Amino acid sequence: MKSLLKGLLALCCLALTATPVLAGEVHLSVAASLKEVINELSDSYARSHPGVRFLKNYGGSGQLAKQIESGAPADIFISANVEWVEYLKGKKLLDAASIGTFTYNTLVFAGQPGKAASLKDLTRLARIAIGSPKSVPAGEYAMEALKKAGLDKQLEKKLIMARDVRECLMYAERGEVDGGFVYRTDALQAKQARILFTVPQELYPKVTYPMALTGSGVRNADAAGFLAFLHGGEGKAVLAKHGFAAR
């Protein structure tokens, strides 16, 4: 009898300490530049799949990857570069079979009209916003372009670091900087800033957005269903509507 009571107490303790998994919940960790796209697609999916609830976390891809590595809840990860997906894959935190490309983008420089027309004009500016290259792919792409153009040393003291590409655009919108490196899709949403020039593609890798299921996502039927939905026709249509390149 005593052993039975001990067993029941142990089961109760386990039940109380176990992390609850709620049916219908899908945790998304997504690059900040995809916020409007994922908001629209997740709303559409939820309308046709009653009971599915999305919990969304937007930010710099590196920051999101580190959060997932530290145990933050995530069923689907969408990065703004291949590097951070490969990083989590190497840590065995992503389902390798589910990795695929969601879309593509282009790097531009946005700011107030007349500030600059090419990379070489940036030497005349005082403050330039850029996503932190250590965690923000847009910043990493921009730094690579500046190095290949031979401008990184001349501009290093003028760079204002942002925690993600949306913060970079915000600085440009408010006039707190002369301009910033952002994605074309972000700049198209700006109210004050304008695209001043497109960064030559030969200076940086193609902006690729890979996505994958995490370990918990593989066991979540709703997450797998939403990933398949993102690959479908509606996903492509919404991406095109927001200015993203076709995959």
Listing every helix as H and every strand as E from the N terminus to the C terminus, the arrangement reads HEHEHEHEEEHHEHEHEEHHH
Mean pLDDT: 91
Number of helices: 11
Helix-residue proportion:
40-55%
What does this structure look like?
41% of the residues lie in helices and 21% in strands. It is of the alpha/beta class and 247 residues long. It folds into two domains: 24-104 and 207-241, 3-Layer(aba) Sandwich (D-Maltodextrin-Binding Protein, domain 2); 107-198, D-Maltodextrin-Binding Protein, domain 2. The strands form two sheets. The chain has a five-stranded mixed sheet. Strands 7-6-8-5-9 form a five-stranded mixed sheet, with helices on both faces. β1 (25-31), α2 (35-48) and β2 (53-59) form a beta-alpha-beta unit. α3 packs parallel to α4. The radius of gyration is 21 Å and the shape is globular. Pfam families: SBP_bac_11 (PF13531). GO terms for molecular function: metal ion binding; molybdate ion binding; tungstate binding. This is Molybdate ABC transporter substrate-binding protein. The complex is composed of two ATP-binding proteins (ModC), two transmembrane proteins (ModB) and a solute-binding protein (ModA).
In short:
With 247 residues, the protein is of the alpha/beta class.
Question: What key attributes describe this structure?
Answer:
247 residues; alpha/beta; D-Maltodextrin-Binding Protein, domain 2; 2 domains; 5-stranded mixed β-sheet; 11 helices; 21% strand
